[in-house]
Design a protein that fits this description.
- About 45% of the residues are buried.
- Helices cover about 55% and strands about 10% of the residues.
- It is of the alpha+beta class.
- The strands form 4 sheets. A 5-stranded mixed sheet has the order 1-3-2-4-5, with helices on both faces. It has a 3-stranded antiparallel sheet with strand order 6-7-10.
- The protein contains 19 helices and 13 strands.
Length: about 450
């Protein structure tokens, strides 16, 4: 079934309605040495007309490795010259078009990002590789440009074979995915889910100071943060912690749910209004070091810095609380949680200091499905906790979704302005409208849910 769907998708790719609205990831590259385009019908038509292979960079705005390639390998003059001359360079934003990212990831047997693909003009991949440096990228471009010129029949045969022998994709999601945890909470294996949620909240994947969850490194057992925060993760995990609190009455779960929702309201939208941004980038400027970017610069601490800011006695409690070792910067993970109460004043001061650091850049796309997930999370929290702040946040995002992304005349939803919605966008939007109806008893949300479900 998967193979048939992929083959059919690739065969009809050039004729499908793939609207080319540019995401922040694409628009940021205007003026770059490589003449990047977003994914669109026009780009596919150009590749066919010029009979050039497409070089497709499948990436996510917040990914450190994405930024590293854009700042290094793709800025190299030799790479840019070769890319512009022999390929049609395309950036495929995995958030704007997750359907295509998943499809190509399945063919390459990975969903790790970034993913570099070289496709035939018909959109069939014959080469794929992950993050790479300048020298290796330059070597690959030379090899594949020569193969396309001299061995085209063999290359086309390879592309056909890759599509026919597609392997299941791996996952690149937060460990113990929120959807699985929710299923366990609701389906009977509650003890395992509760234990997993406790461990996750104590780990460095949870922002111990400001709330919210980071993406994880590929090795789930290590629980190392990649520091990217995405809206969808916040929505699903806040919901999981809220439901865990309802089941167990353990206030630790409620604190995590509230802190995660508060992070989103504080840091992932314009002040007090509008929809929510898609996420927050992993990299940020290193304070006091000029235009230097580093992964986790906004979130990490070292012992000497804490002693200077807090004084020796208060810093000692924080250092022991989080197991901070000298000589390196650390993400915060609970090591001695019994010290949490004593350290609370210092943690508040650390949060205030951190908020004055250069903030990570935000992916300011307002995506329908992600916003719908957050509307659901906020609406449920508002209903359970009787908190008007959460209800106002849900209503603000819902107003944007239903006036800017939902077309009342054609009864169609957009994923983002100019981007056709996916089935998952409709699914999450219907649920969001139902959750708002539950929270407000306003029948207009029920009417919208029915209209979207009918569509």
């Amino acid at each position: 079934m998967l193979r048939r769907a992929l083959v059919l998708s690739l065969l009809i790719l050039s004729g499908s309605a793939l609207f080319g609205a540019e995401s922040r990831l694409v628009s940021d590259q205007q003026g770059a040495p490589i003449r990047w385009s977003g994914w669109s019908d026009a780009v596919l038509a150009r590749a066919k007309k010029e009979q050039k292979p497409l070089f497709v960079f499948v990436a996510a705005f917040g990914s450190h490795d994405t930024r590293q390639m854009l700042r290094e390998a793709f800025l190299n003059g030799e790479v840019a010259e070769m890319m512009n001359a022999y390929f049609v360079p395309v950036i495929l934003d995995a958030r704007t078009r997750p359907d295509l990212a998943r499809m190509y990831g399945a063919i390459a047997a990975t969903t790790d990002l970034p993913l570099n693909l070289i496709l035939t003009p018909e959109g069939k991949p014959f080469v794929s590789f992950g993050y790479t440096g300048t020298a290796e990228l330059s070597r690959q471009l030379v090899i594949q440009a020569n193969r396309w010129k001299d061995e085209r029949a063999a290359v086309l045969a390879e592309a056909e074979q890759k599509v026919k022998t597609v392997a299941p994709a791996t996952t690149h999601e937060i460990p113990l995915r929120a959807s699985a945890l929710l299923a366990q909470l609701r389906g009977g294996d509650r003890d395992a889910a509760v234990d997993a949620l406790h461990k996750l909240a104590a780990s460095a994947l949870y922002d111990q100071l400001g709330g919210g969850f980071h993406r994880a490194a590929n090795d789930a057992e290590r629980r190392e943060p990649m520091y990217e925060k995405t809206l969808a993760d916040q929505a699903l995990l806040a919901t999981a912690y809220l439901e865990a609190w309802q089941i167990t009455h353990d206030d630790a779960f409620l604190r995590v749910a509230r802190a995660t929702l508060d992070f989103v309201l504080r840091d992932l939208r314009a002040p007090n209004s509008g929809p929510f941004d898609a996420g927050e980038e992993a990299d940020s400027l290193v304070p006091g070091e000029g235009p230097v970017f580093a992964t986790g610069a906004f979130y990490t601490w070292d012992a000497a810095e804490l002693e200077r800011l807090l004084g020796d006695e208060a810093a000692d409690k924080v250092i022991r609380l989080y197991g901070i070792e000298r000589g390196a910067r650390h993400a915060l993970a609970l090591h001695q949680p019994q010290l949490l109460g004593e350290a609370t004043p210092s943690l508040q001061k650390m949060l205030e200091i951190r908020q004055k650091r250069p903030s990570p850049f935000r992916d300011d796309q307002a995506l329908a499905g992600d916003n719908a997930l957050m509307i659901s999370a906020l609406a449920r929290a508002a209903a359970v906790l009787r908190d008007e702040t959460y209800l106002r946040g849900a209503l603000s995002a819902a107003t944007y979704l239903t006036t800017k992304l939902w077309n009342a005349q054609t009864k169609t939803l957009a994923r983002a302005p100019g981007v056709v919605a996916l089935p998952e966008d409709y699914t999450f939007a219907v649920q969001a409208m139902l959750d708002l109806f539950d929270a407000t008893y306003d029948v207009r949300w029920l009417d919208l849910a029915l209209a979207m479900q009918t569509r």
